[in-house]
Amino acid sequence: MDDFKKHTTKDGSLSLYSLSYEEGFHDKDGALRESIDKYLIPSQLEQFSNTKKIIVLDVCMGLGYNTGCILEELLKSNLTIEWHGLEIDQRPLNLGLNEKIFQEIWSPKVLHFFNCLNKSGRWTEGFNEGTIHWGDARQKIYEIQDSLLFDLILLDPFSPQKCPELWSEEFISLLTERLSFDGRLITYSTAASIRASLKRAGLNIYSIVPSIDAPSRWSSGTVAMKKQLEQQFISKNCLFKHLSTREVEHLATRSSIPYRDPTGKGKSKEIISTRELEQSKSQLINTSSWRKRWNTAQ
Ligand SMILES: C[S@@+](CC[C@H](N)C(=O)[O-])C[C@H]1O[C@@H](n2cnc3c(N)ncnc32)[C@H](O)[C@@H]1O
Fold this sequence. Notes:
Layout: E1 4-8, E2 14-18, E3 23-24, H1 31-43, E4 53-59, H2 65-74, E5 80-87, H3 91-97, H4 100-103, H5 108-120, E6 122-125, E7 128-134, H6 137-140, E8 150-155, H7 169-177, E9 179-187, H8 192-200, E10 204-208, E11 222-225, H9 231-237, E12 240-241, H10 245-250, H11 268-281, H12 287-294
Parallel strand pairs: 4-5, 4-8, 5-7, 8-9
Antiparallel strand pairs: 1-2, 2-3, 6-7, 9-11, 10-11, 10-12
The structure holds S-adenosylmethionine (SAM).
């Protein structure tokens, strides 16, 4: 486990720092808090109350907070759950399951789910079922039958500069093909490149409104959908908003140039350098001018 440094985040939940990616798994403010704010709340599980079954894909399960939070709620409902996870490394889950502060977060049912995945990669409980596909998400996604359309896709890789392969135009387009019409692809990322790729894949994108504890943030992430949300719905629920002028203008800068991985096997360094070259030749507005105009560090 030399690769990972364990630490406790501000809300008391366990997180990891990856020495190989030089990046933390979660916000310092709280691993659990982040999953609730950026994945559970924007999922609006009540939207699925008229359906019988919900199909969920967790891309980069890691310790499993995003799935854990959502399952805590779904397991109290009458919905049948089909869950799939894509994750290259089993060690984070294994490490979490050996830590008391991680175990104590979860109900016995969710802990059982995690233990099943860790032992056999499969979980079943009544009609509910789950499978974790260990390995590179870019290849393992093909293990999931392509007729299966997801109601929720939770996209949580390391940042684009550290793990560009899971933010590529091609991978985003693959995920889009697997999203149901009413489904939601949810990510913490507000990056112009990611939002632009989501848009080019044909999705409508909305900015996640930061919680009242984080008023200084301009966005807490992105929700992308095939369906267009009605203005009345947006105004009423206050969770999402259309992109602001600042966010729309961000999509017209060089930052919006996508990460490209046409073979689905590109190495992160190659993907980054191809993009840098494309940015250097681009006629798009320089991101620094956008930053100056909006006086923002992002
Ligand atoms: C930011 S962490 C995910 C945090 C996680 N959602 C949680 O709640 O703990 C990113 C995860 O992406 C995984 N990962 C990196 N490259 C991957 C790849 N090519 N395919 C699948 N998973 C990958 C890492 O092993 C790591 O667990």
